[in-house]
Amino acid sequence: MFTLNGELNYQTQIKWGWQDKTHRIQISNSNELERIILRKVYVSEAYAVYAYINEDYIIEVSAYFNTTCDPNSVIITSQRYGSGAPKKLICIPTGDALRFDARWPHNIAAKKHWKENLDGFDVDVNFSEWDFAPLLKELTLTKAMKKASLKINNLDSK
């Protein structure tokens, strides 16, 4: 059994903290994405879900299932999107997890209960327990700083 602090270190090299201990939602800054990201670890089911908000206010989520796989391989599941396209699991480059991605507008995702059955790799996440406000604030402030920087650069070039 993992302790709460053990969950913070689960399958990661990033430093995580608690955003909401009651619902076990973790928060961190991603240098790669230059954004705040959230995650929730499901230790007994051996997966974790990560979420961040992109420049277009779309919440992008990834479920990572801890399992050995052929690095960079793609597994086409028997499950389909509404369009008929197959849902795919992607083995990460280290070969120790499969990844499945999804995305929704932030106002929909914040209320969403995400459930997937990907041929034995299941996701069951209630996003209404997640607080996306810090991610939205950060994005809004980042955009404001970029606009201010553009104005200054335009004035400098005159």
Structure report:
With 158 residues, the chain is α+β, with helices and mostly antiparallel strands. It has one domain (4-156). The chain has helices spanning 4-8, 106-109, 133-156, and strands spanning 17-20, 25-30, 35-42, 47-53, 58-66, 74-80, 86-91, 97-105, 113-118, 121-126. The chain has an 8-stranded antiparallel sheet. The chain is globular. The N and C termini lie far apart (63 Å).
| Total number of beta strands | 10
Helix content: 10-25%
Strand content range: 35-45%
Averaging pLDDT over every residue, what do you get?
87
Radius of gyration: 18 Å
Low-confidence stretches: none
Summed up, the helix count is 3
User: Order of strands side by side in the largest beta sheet?
Assistant: 1-2-3-4-5-8-7-6
End-to-end C-alpha gap: 63 Å
- Any idea what the shape is? globular
Structure classification: alpha+beta
**Domain module tally:** 1
**What about the largest sheet?**
8 strands, antiparallel
How are helices and strands ordered from N to C? Answer: HEEEEEEEEHEEH
Structural topology:
Blueprint: H1 4-8, E1 17-20, E2 25-30, E3 35-42, E4 47-53, E5 58-66, E6 74-80, E7 86-91, E8 97-105, H2 106-109, E9 113-118, E10 121-126, H3 133-156
Provide keyphrases for this structure:
10 strands; 3 helices; globular; eight-stranded antiparallel β-sheet; two-stranded antiparallel sheet; alpha+beta; 158 residues; single chain
Summarize the structure.
The chain has helices at about 5-10, 105-110, 135-155; strands spanning about 15-20, 25-30, 35-40, 45-55, 60-65, 75-80, 85-90, 95-105, 115-120, 120-125.
